[in-house]
């Protein structure tokens, strides 16, 4: 249950960041994308959510702005860290947590 809560809080924490073109740090973007990619890997039905989140959060952001964030070392470190941590979660718990995040959409 603790894992589910952590994943849910991580996902929900970034929803208010959609107010500006790109009002997210490279670290936060790496964590969010790591989480979304993880969730779509444990539940392929969530792939559409993963693909649509960027347009929802940054409707006016250019591809260049997002690429600059993704190319940063801060993004890569955060993405790698969250990916490694999420990989430690048992698959049944991961599916449960990811489904809970998708339900909050």
Structural write-up:
With 105 residues, the chain is mainly α. The protein has one domain. It has helices at residues 2-13, 26-42, 47-57, 63-70, 73-86, 91-103. α2 (26-42) packs parallel to α5. The longest helix has 17 residues, at 26-42. The two termini are 19 Å apart. 24% of the residues are buried. The model is unreliable at 16-20 (pLDDT under 50).
Question: What is the topology?
Answer:
Blueprint lengths: L1 H12 L12 H17 L4 H11 L5 H8 L2 H14 L4 H13 L2
Helix pairs in contact: 1-6, 2-3, 2-5, 2-6
Give a short overview:
This protein has 105 residues and is mostly helical.
Helicity level: over 70%
| Rg computed from alpha carbons, rounded to a whole number of angstroms | 13 Å
| Proportion of residues in extended strands | under 5%
Distance between termini?
19 Å
Key terms:
6 helices; globular; single chain; mainly alpha; 105 residues
